[in-house]
């Protein structure tokens, strides 16, 4: 997702109660969202995986479900759902959205973009191929189409905005999770996997792999 906000434990606990309330609200009151699924930006596609019922609105429970679907444990998924809902819900919610504004609206997800990123999304969340290629031309030293853990760390440090230190930890958490979930057994994060992060397609791949492995048990 676009950013993971750091919150004290007490705040996360309080937000979990709001999360439950938010989930009940979405059940009892149907809300329409405006989203053109045929012409989504790359960032909207990235977020759309977590919109499990495809109504253009991502609730905390859907975030939880999405992170579990790609292989995260329940405790991490629950804390991340609370953090993302609290941090991004108010930013992406239209003014007429029902309170408490803890749901993420796919149409406005570009509002949640943070600094210290690669620039592979433009200000509207559209994919920028030139910036994406720079990730590998600048940082992929061992293999031209893949990143090692150290190269990912190098890239994160190189993209830090000195005027926006609050964005540093968000980039570290996001890329740390990407590397953990999508790198191969040799420790390489391949170019096609990174591209799939930007448009969300790798999430569906990870979910499919997890479903397949469970069915083989």
From TrEMBL:
Pfam families: Caleosin. This is EF-hand domain-containing protein. It comes from the Eukaryota. Belongs to the caleosin family. Residues 38-73 form the EF-hand domain. The keyword Transport does not apply. Keywords: Signal. Residues 1-28 form the signal peptide.
